[in-house]
Every structure is written in C-alpha cells, then in structure tokens.
Amino acid sequence: MTLAEMPFILPDLRPASAELFVLAMACLILFVDLFVKDTRRTAVFALTQLTLVGAAVVTWAGTSGEVVYTFSNMYVHDFLADMLKQLLYLTDIIVLFYARAYVVDRPLLGRGEFYTLTLFATLGMMVMISANHFITIFLGVELLSLSLYAMVALNRDSATAAEAAMKYLVLGALASGLMLYGMSMIYGAVGSLEIGEVAERLQAGVANHSILVLGLVFLVAGLAFKLGVVPFHMWIPDVYHGAPTAVGLFIGTAPKLAAFAIVLRILANGLLTLSYDWQMMLLIMAVLSIVLGNVAAIAQHNFKRMLAYSAIAHMGFMLLGLAVGVVGGDARFTLNAYSSALFYVVIYVLSSAGAFGMILLMARAGFEAEDLDDYKGLNRRNPWFAAMLMMLMLSMAGIPFFVGFFAKFAVLQAVVASGQIWLAVVAVIFSLIGAFYYLRVVKLMYFDAPADPTPIQAPLEVKALISANGLAVALLGLFPDTLMWFCLLAIRLSLSVFA
Amino acid sequence: MAALHEFLTSLFGAATPTIWIVLQIVAIVLPLMAVVAYLTYAERKIIGFMQVRIGPDRVGYWGLLQPIADALKLLVKEIIIPTGADKALFLLAPILSIVPALAAWAVIPFSDTLILADVNAGLLYAMAVSSLGVYGIILAGWASNSKYAFLGSMRSAAQLISYEVAMGMALITVLMVSNSLNLADIVRAQGEGIFASHGVSFFSWNWLPLLPMFVVYLVSGVAETNRAPFDMAEGESEIVAGFHVEYSGMAFAIFFLAEYANMILVSALTATLFLGGWLSPVSFLPDGLFWLLAKISALLFFFLWIRATFPRYRYDQVMRLGWKVFIPLCLVWIVVVGCWMMSPWNIWK
Amino acid sequence: MDFKSVVFYLFSAVLVFASLRVITARNPVRAVLYLVLAFVSGGGIWMLLEAEFLAITLVLVYVGAVMVLFLFVVMLLDINLDRLREGFWSYLPLGATVGALMALEMGVVIGGSYFDLFENRVPALVTDSNVKEIGRLIYTDYVYPFEVASVILLVGIVAAIALTGRQRRQTKAMDPAQQVLVKASDRVRLVSMPSEKLEDSVPQAGE
C-alpha cells in the first residue's frame, strides 16, 4: 500500500474545537508578538484575553450533557470538562487582568512569551481536563508543567526565581517520572491505557493485583506531587515564594482545576475498583496535609509562603472529599463526595485568585508586597481593598456565611456520611487552628498602624475585578446552591459510575 | 559468486555464513581504503591543476606513489600523547571516527543484488551510524587537552548537529516519494516514471523533482564531512588544525582516512538517494556497478572543485545557512511534496 | 539457551554495567560516554525485539544528537569532582539502606509473579515494515497525543528562547550596507551660531 492509497480518515474534531482554537490562536499570537514593537504588549494582551473569551464561546456552543469520545477514545467531551474549562478560562482572564500592571512594570516578565506561555499552559490544562487516556493525561501534565517552569524562570535576573524554577523543574520531572512509572505498571497489569478500558478490565478481574497496587502507589504519588499535598508538597512554598507573583497567582489557581480533573478521571473513572487501596492513600495524605499546612502556615511571615501552606491545607481538604466516595465497596456516596470536592476546588481557586490579586495590586515597580507587615493598616490606606481582602481571608478560613464555609461544610458532610467521624473532627480542629493565620491578616489590616501611609491606587478594571472577586466570595456564601447544583450535575453526567 | 560460496562451504562447513560476511566486508573495505589513498592524490592533483600548478610529481610516475609514501611516513612516525591528555579517550577517538565511516557501507546497494545487508530501515541505519562520527571529533578535541583542539571540536560538533537536521529533513522527502526506507528500493523507485518509460531515466531520478532537497543534501553533506568551505573544525589559518592538532603518526592518519571515507560515503549516499544509484541514465546502456562508481567519482570531483573555489565560511554564516535557510526550506518542501503527492499530479504512483 | 538469549544477556549485561558506570565514573565526560554505551545497548535490545525503528531512532536521536549536546555541556563545565564527591561516602550507608529496602519491598510485593508477564505476552509481529506500521498508528490512532507532543516541543523552543534570548546586541560589528548608505549630512551638521555664554544650552550635533 503506498502512501496515497492509505485511507485517510479525519477524526471527529468538533468535540475538541476549543483546544484547536486555543492552539491556533497561541501560534498566531506567537507570530503577532514578533511584529509588535510596543513594550507594553497591549495587542498581545488583548489578543490573549480575546482568545480566552473566544474559547469560552466555543466551549459554550459545544456544551450538551452528553459524553462524547473522539481521537480513538483518547479525548472525552462531557459536562465536567465543559464546566471545568469555563472556570479555567474565567480564572485565566482574571489572572491576566491582575497580572497586567505587575508584568508591565517588569520588563523581563512583560514580554509576549508571558502571554503565549499562559495560553500554552491553558491548552495543557484543557488537554488534562478532557483526557481519557493515560498518554494524553501525561502529555497534558507535561505541556502545563513545561510552560510553568519557563514562566517561573522568566524573571531570570532574580536569584530566587531561578532557584524556584530549578526546584520546580527537578521535582516536577521526578513527579512525572513517578507518574509515568505508575502508568507503565498499570499498563503492564491491565494491557490498556485507555481509562474506560482499564476500568472494564479491572472489573473483569484479570489483572495481577500486586502489580496494579504498585503502579497505583507511583501514580498516586505523582498526582499528589502535582496537587502539592504532604508528603509531596516540598516544592509548593518555594515555588509560590520564588516565582514572580503574577506567575505564582497563575500556578496557585488554574492548575488546581486541571489536577482535580485528572485525579477524578484516573481514580474515580479508571481505577474505581481499586478504591479501597487509593482511598487509604488519599486519606493519609489528606490528613497530613491539613495538619502540616495549617500548622506551618502560622509560622510564616511572607504572605506568599503563607498562602502556599494554606494551599497545601486546602488541597488536603479537597482530597478528603475524594477519599470518602466509596464505603465498604458501596458507591452510594460518590456523587455527594466528589461533587463536594469539586465545589471545594472551585471555591479555593476563586479565593486564592483574589488573595494573590491583592498582592499584585499592592506591588509596584521595584517593590513586592510580600511580607505580612506590608499589609499593616491597609484599612487606613484603602478601606475598600481591606474589606475585600478581609472577606477573602474569612472565606478561606471557613467562617460562616462566606462561601469557604460551605465548601468545607460540604466536604465534612460527605466525610460524616461515610461514617468516619474522627476524620471530620481532625479536619475541623485543624481548620480552627488554621483560622488563626487568616485572622492575623485581618488583624494586621485593621488594628495595626501602616508603615507607609500612602493610599493605594489601582487601575479601574483591576479595582472592579477585585471587588467582584471579593463580593463573589460573599455572595456565593449567601447563595451556594446554584454552584453546588452545577457541581452535582457535572459529576453525575460525567462519571462512568452513574452512566 | 555461487561457485565461490559452494567452495567456501566445502572448506569451512557450518562457519561459512560468518566467513562469507567477513569476506564481503573485506571486499568493501579494502577497495575503499585504496580509493581513500588515491582520493588524496586526486585532490592534490586536481586542486593543483585548478590553481595552475603541477601537484605531486616526485614519487613514481606523475607522483602516483605519493599516497603510498605518505602512508609509510605516517606509519613509522611516533604517536605523541600530550601531557594531561586522557590517554584512553585520546586513542579511542580516531577509532570512533573511522568505524562509523566504514560501518555505514553495510547498507549501500552496489547493484540490484550486490548489497551486504539488505535491511528495511537501511536509510535510517545509514543516518544513525553516520551521526556517530561526531564522537570521534569531540573526544579528540577534549582528550587532547589543548584549546585549539577543543575549539575545533566544539565548532564541529555544533556544525554536525545543525546540518544533520537539514540532512535528515531532506531525506524525509526522499523516503516520502520512494515509500520505503530500504536503499535498494529507493534506487528501484527512481527507475520508474514518465521519463524512465521513455528511455531517459536520468530525468526520473530524485534529483530533478526534489531539486531543492538535492542541493540541501549535497551542501549539508559537504558540511557534515567538515570539508571546505565548511572546514571550521580544522580552520588551519585560525586554530591551526582544529581537533586533530595534537595527533601524529597513525592516529592522525586514521582521522585523515575517516574524513576521506566519509566524503566517499556521502557521495555514495547522494548517488544512491538522488542520482539513481546503479541505474543507467539512458535505457540503451546497461545498469550496473560502474554507474554507481562513476556517479561517486563525479560527486567527489565536485567536493574537490568547491574546495578549490570557495573561501571558508565564517562560523555564524555556517550556522545561519543551516538553521535559517536549509531547515525552513526543508520544512516547506516537505509540505510541498506532501501536497504534490496527494494531488492528481502525483508522479510517484 | 538459544543464540537470541545469549545476545540478550550480553546486551543487558553491557547495559547494566554501563548504567552503573554512568553514576560511578570519576570523570563526567566518561560518565556521559558510558551513558552513550547504555543507549546503544538499549537500542540493541530493542533490535532483538524486532523494533528496529525504535532502536535506530534511539541511536539517531539520543546518541547522535542529544548526547553530543550533553557532552558539549559537560566538557564546557568546570566540574570540581572532589567537591561533588565530598559527601558520597558519608551518605552511602543511608542511601544504600534505603535503596536496598525499597528494592526488597518491591520484590516482596511483586514476588515471582512479575515474570509471568513475559511469558504470555509475545510482541505482536508486524508483517510489513516496522516503520510503516508505527507511522500509520501515529497518524491515525495516536494523532492526538502526537500533536500534543509536538506542542510540547514548541513550548520547549519558546521557553528556551524566552529564557536565553537577550535583546542586547552581541557584537559591535558594523553593517556595511548601512555604512555605505551614510551621507555627510548624517555625520556632521554645521551650525552657525552667535557666541554665547557657557550656561546657555549648546545645540547637540547629530540630532
């Protein structure tokens, strides 16, 4: 058969139109960037934002509730993917607006590559979210990670950034290696890499259990690395701290959504039969993360580092939701448990974006508002911003009637429903301990005298956005039902258990 | 041939296949060495004529024994190992540079049936093996513990890697149109086509439809062998002799052998891939080994000709040509050939 | 043991030995060369499995290109071996214990059952050329991961250029084309002006 005679079958591209759009636009922006002389890169920034809006429209147009596979079942298009992608675009748009002034002030960061790498990272996350095959999961993770490594190092004159990038790269590569090794073990035991098929063959019970579990351990370790939970959390504080704040904001928000997606797809869709094994691992990691994250955060004086440890604690909390889905072989609780975890991660991303946004807002050329002391007396410098940051902090601490409370509440409910009361108790106790460091920020803002009493100025769109972000935390706290309903719907429509 | 094989079987019994292969290898390598020797002579004579001087004429008639005299001289000279050199690697380097130059000959088809290893992925094999030659040069430069040698080896490593990319991409079009990686199949595919059916297979060979790639391959071939005008690695006028400045005696001779063997190899590959290998250009003349030899000789003459004609490139120009001219050109041409093959005007059916 | 097994064990032994030497060789250049040897023996093992495309590509890409660049970098770095090795012996007992424990645990978990895997899985032999078969799969079933992988490479290029490509000029060389185009009026401007006191602004030539 010669080349010309080979049948040429185009795969169904429609489900993946958002990915194709983002890829095409990213390449276009690379070209446009070549010819843009403007050092502020306004055109590149605008095009990037337009791409994200366009992708949202494309995704919206393709949303149905059905599960569609394409590219030889390597790609899945379902409601969960659509919802996470929309949240991803939204997060990206917010991140880019927050980061705009910061990167323009810093010539090394504010080049076109910042925007194109953001788009490529976004593409990587989209691939992760829609992955239905271990290979695509791995490639998505790598696309995301590679873009992030480069973004952390973009500010190459900064020694801390270079150190953070190096640590991130080395540990990230190690995590990828672990994940890949785990995948290869599972492939060896099951004979397939496609998630649906892995689940089927596991159910048929032909696989060698010990090899499966060995693979599972490596796989979960790799995933835990990417999520940043104890004991695979070492990179988080250094990277959050060392990365330029604009990049830290990006790392601290959007990738959590994608990581949630792959964890759910691998563990809940593919390896549900092994739930006894991986739930144990997740539980241990979750408890350790909640304990270590909350305790270590208290000792921090750097706001970014504090947020890093808070991220570890939050991811632990999220894992709690994923770890209690199946009780004694009964999958009755999965819907509530997984949707509470989804709800948690969405809320975390929202609050975390706001908190990092405040750091970016306070930073100026040549000054990073990283220390907690920089927030002293914020109320006297700008009462509105202080109020917004207070709401974000209170929500993250889980004070009732902010949305963070409902997120924690939903997860705890799922934990209690699974009958593991002691877990809920531990989680609550350490959340209370954790509330200390959030409230400390509030105390600094309202009861301490500012070191530098100059009022804080910000561009209008950033002001509007941070207000919207802060108010959203409060409003969602009053009306959490809609988002919760969407989370339930996404899990119910997309997980194979409910098909 | 068959009779010889039978005779060997009666002589050696079960060990015959091994002996047979060894004999074949010897039959390739020995003439190759002779060709290398006389290629150096040809080079001096031809460049001499081009520069209106006589060239070697003292040893034997018209200087015909000059290569022998050179070889003898090098044989009896001492191999000096510089102080601080890494002795093992210093001695390993020349071997690493000659072995790939010889090993790649295994897949070159001399005629329809005359081929040492008729493997499916012959083209890939040839590329892989010839890409190993760079180790000899790099190690020679490093192990010599001399800055000129080191500079030369760094230059040559960068140059070889750059041009390997262009070369590989040029080959992609060849394997696209031949629909095979087997070198013999590639030659056979060139014997078919509209012109070939009219008796002038010369115009059906790959050089015409893939002309830009032919040029890219040929020029990259010159660069790959570190020949003028791409002889930055030696650069006598700036870094005395580059990577082999510290070598003497036989070690030096082996580098010399490797360079010329590589030249012949690149010529043979070019002849096979673009100029129809053993095929005759016109149908009233028979195909055969002598056509391949004639093509190789013509290409070798071309190598010497451009050495006598062009001044040496500057280093950044070499890199610019490789990365900014050849590679984009190849990328475009791959797409062009792809579209051509899918269009109704496809001439390679 | 047939001939194939002998070759397999030979290649494997060389592979293991070379890999060991990669981490124990005193000289980094030699370590890289042992890595090259390891790649070549790995390629040999693949060749035994009739995956000639993978084998040759391994040699072509890793040995022929990647490792050359690796060697390049290692040669240019001034690595102080003694300082690198300072902690080696003091950390060795701990490292060796951990490593041995891990190996032991894995052994216990997997037991003898792992080797059964090889028995019942014969590589699917392709009748046509290996290369064609891989090409067909890559452009049909695996087109999506293949394209994503190419995007990853693109990001690699973008990242490398973003991290290294400084905007400053590397050389002070003149562009002859620009030099030829220069006019006298670009170089010198003669201004007639009345004499002034020093503190008055002096017009700059060449503005």
From TrEMBL, chain B:
EC assignment: the record states: 7.1.1.-
Is-annotated flag, keyword Transmembrane?
A: yes
Look up and give the organism this protein is from.
Answer: Rhodocyclus tenuis
The record ties this protein, via HAMAP family, to:
NDH1_NuoH
CC terms in the record's Gene Ontology section: plasma membrane
Name it. Answer: NADH-quinone oxidoreductase subunit H
What would be an example GO MF term here?
A: oxidoreductase activity, acting on NAD(P)H, quinone or similar compound as acceptor
Protein role: NDH-1 shuttles electrons from NADH, via FMN and iron-sulfur (Fe-S) centers, to quinones in the respiratory chain. The immediate electron acceptor for the enzyme in this species is believed to be ubiquinone. Couples the redox reaction to proton translocation (for every two electrons transferred, four hydrogen ions are translocated across the cytoplasmic membrane), and thus conserves the redox energy in a proton gradient. This subunit may bind ubiquinone.
Q: Which gene encodes it?
A: nuoH
Q: What is its main location?
A: membrane
**What reaction gets catalysed by this protein?**
a quinone + NADH + 5 H(+)(in) = a quinol + NAD(+) + 4 H(+)(out)
Q: How does it assemble?
A: NDH-1 is composed of 14 different subunits. Subunits NuoA, H, J, K, L, M, N constitute the membrane sector of the complex.
TrEMBL record, chain C:
Query: Main location per UniProt?
Result: membrane
What family does the Swiss-Prot or TrEMBL record give for this protein? Belongs to the complex I subunit 6 family.
Q: Which organism is it from?
A: Rhodocyclus tenuis (Rhodospirillum tenue)
The protein's UniProt keywords, in alphabetical order, are:
Cell membrane, Membrane, NAD, Oxidoreductase, Quinone, Transmembrane, Transmembrane helix
EC number of the protein? 7.1.1.-
- Name listed for the protein in its UniProt record: NADH-quinone oxidoreductase subunit J
Biological role stated in the UniProt entry: NDH-1 shuttles electrons from NADH, via FMN and iron-sulfur (Fe-S) centers, to quinones in the respiratory chain. Couples the redox reaction to proton translocation (for every two electrons transferred, four hydrogen ions are translocated across the cytoplasmic membrane), and thus conserves the redox energy in a proton gradient.
Q: Which PANTHER family match?
A: NADH-UBIQUINONE OXIDOREDUCTASE CHAIN 6 (PTHR33269:SF17)
